[in-house]
Design a protein that fits this description.
Low-confidence stretches: none
Shape: elongated
Distance between the termini: 72 Å
Strand content: 5-15%
Helix content: 55-70%
Structural class: mainly alpha
Strand order of the largest sheet: 1-2
Order of helices and strands: HEHHHEHHHHH
Number of strands: 2
């Protein structure tokens, strides 16, 4: 008898797949700019550095292309800083496998992988300049609103419903302005990145 309401058999996770998701620590020698890039992008978009690192490196096809580029990449040890990252075991395996297969230094593979973030940072830097301009305009708007509220208070009774409504709107606008200031401050690291 075939029961239409029977639950289909769900696949079971494999132990090997689960082990690949275990977090491990790996130390690399990278440029200070690459280290800053990981930190800035993670902070700006609210992504964990581990997730970002895994995303950049856990793709054998892309890593193979990078490994072929690395042969012409000048990798000077004296300009590098030692930094430990948390990543998943599978990502580290991909990195080690590619490094051995192409005879490419692991640190160089990581450095070039991180450099893929630079165009995103440049684009975000341009947006940051626009955000600052917009923030200045909203500050002017807030100041105008405060002046208008002051004028209303002088010309109407304090308990006038129009004043209460406008005060509510101004409170919301002040909260919004504070949130916008926080967004612009978070982006300040992007402005300094390529200096």
């Amino acid at each position: 008898m075939n029961d239409k309401n029977a639950r289909p058999e769900l696949p079971h996770p494999r132990a090997q797949d689960l082990r690949g998701r275990q977090s491990v620590r790996a130390t690399f020698r990278l440029s200070s700019q690459a280290i800053k890039a990981i930190s800035i992008v993670a902070a700006q978009w609210g992504i964990k550095q581990k997730s970002l690192f895994d995303h950049l490196i856990d793709d054998l096809d892309t890593l193979s292309i990078i490994a072929q580029e690395v042969k012409s990449f000048e990798f000077q040890e004296r300009q590098r800083v030692q930094k430990t990252f948390v990543l998943n075991r599978q990502t580290l395996h991909c990195l080690d496998q590619t490094s051995q297969q192409y005879q490419a230094p692991r640190d160089a593979l990581v450095e070039v992988s991180i450099q893929r973030l630079y165009p995103i940072i440049m684009e975000e830097r341009q947006k940051q300049h626009q955000r600052k301009k917009m923030l200045a305009k909203t500050e002017q708007y807030l100041e105008e609103g405060q002046r208008l509220l002051h004028t209303m208070s002088r010309q109407l009774d304090e308990d006038d419903p129009l004043i209460r409504e406008f005060e509510t709107a101004m409170t919301a606008l002040e909260t919004l302005q504070a949130n916008m200031v926080a967004v612009v401050r978070r982006g300040e690291a992007i402005e300094a990145f390529f200096k």
